[in-house]
Amino acid sequence: MVSRVIPVDPFDLVIFGGTGDLARRKILPGLFRRFCAGQMPEGAQIIGAARTEMDDAGFRDMVAEAIREFGGGRSCEDGTLDEFLKLIGYQVVDAKGEDGWKELKARLNDGLIRAFYFSVGPSLFGDLAERLRHFGLADDDSRVVVEKPFGHDLKTARALNATLAQHFDETQIYRIDHYLGKETVQNLMAVRFGNVLFEPLWNAQYVDHIQITVAETVGVGGRGGYYDKSGAMRDMVQNHLMQLLCLIAMEPPARFEPDAVRDEKLKVIRALDPVLPHHIVRGQYDGHGVEPSYREDAGDPRSTTESFIALKCHVSNWRWAGTPFYLRTGKKLRARASEIAVVFKDAPHSIFGADAGRHRNILTIRLQPNEGMELGVTIKEPGPGGMRLVDVPLDMSFADALGPDSEEVPDAYERLIMDVIRGNQTLFMRGDEVEAAWAWTDPIIEGWQNRGEAPKPYDVGSSGPDDSLMLMHRDGRKWRDIRT
Ligand code: NAP
Prior knowledge:
Belongs to the glucose-6-phosphate dehydrogenase family. The protein is globular. Helix 6 runs antiparallel to helix 14 (431-450). It is an alpha/beta fold. It has 15 helices and 15 strands. Bound molecules: NADP nicotinamide-adenine-dinucleotide phosphate (NAP).
């Protein structure tokens, strides 16, 4: 099955921070892949903007190098890069000063969609928003895209929202959480709301519990200084894991429209109970001198920042009363694997007797690697010798299901940037959602700060601290293996 490319209208896209890491690794290669897929309209323009002195040609060289390093797609033929580079320009601009703004405005075309990607630190969001208005680059139809971290806590998130709101309406603000741009995550909604099979079972009566795991093998490496002020709770749970939880737990929205979906997600966050201190485990990786430990990577021998979190929480509403949600994320774990597992309850009565053992249906939604879904079903073990039961997966790997063109399924950034151009906010976080998420995580973080709790050490390459295994064992459950 070939993925269908839906054209977008011509646009001017300005990437503030165009020389930075995110632009080079994700945004520019992603735009190139959309170009190769034929989705870049005639008349589209992409302008990098930052303080570094450079001309258009210099920036095009940088973009070409980034694309060579971080990848085009299979459909990007020789010569396509040169064509793509013709859309690219560069403007020296200081977000905090007056330089470059008039020149940047002169480069923009009248009558086209204008999108401004803030691929810079959040401390510059206010400066950029103010100058975009002051110098007349942005109007009421323009869009701004902002990156995580969206605040450090509720107070700073509120301040950021208020700053942006001084210059832009909520309908113009696109807060990126790239997890929402993943194919599987959107498929989760398609599976839930496009089939009659799952939704009747999607509740506390039939679901025993839900596990969400985002496991990484990398450490904090080069960004230890930033990460040490953040930790796994702020860096991963408050945004990515909570967004996944929302999509799993939300009620069916009336329509697949931005505010209908985001209203339902917000209700989930607001229904989350506070987390009890003994329902949360923090960890920090330890390389025992063979590999760097977290504290070495962070450059602070006494750091108490967590590189791992496991927690149990409850969504207090009729649908989920009594069904625990277990969330887990960490760095330097045994494998890079992200998945959501919906573990259904046992059949109410086994006609096969105790010897048949315990069998459960599990719906697994794999985010990485190999995006796909798997439904574990129980069948008879083939052959003679009575009724022996075995669990087998009904597997749907997107790569297989979509055929040879599936590599061309856009990655999260590509899809989300095209949604910005289309003006579709469904997969972007609304300001009140972000604030509600901080309102839930802030007391958890304050709690362990007040108690002076240190994270538990765990071995590099393991599944996290033993206490996180106990979090499940105490409930008679167990985490799924972290494996690729
Ligand atoms: P980075 O590599 O440090 O790049 C920052 C960019 O901002 C550079 O292009 C820099 O260029 C520009 N800049 C800094 N001060 C400026 C000013 N006063 N005026 C104009 N431009 C200025 O950072 P990054 O990793 O790309 O991250 C950008 C944002 O995305 C951050 O908010 C980060 O948290 C977020 N993010 C990054 C990643 C990632 O994988 N890198 C992932 C998720 C979120 P000049 O020095 O030339 O001005």
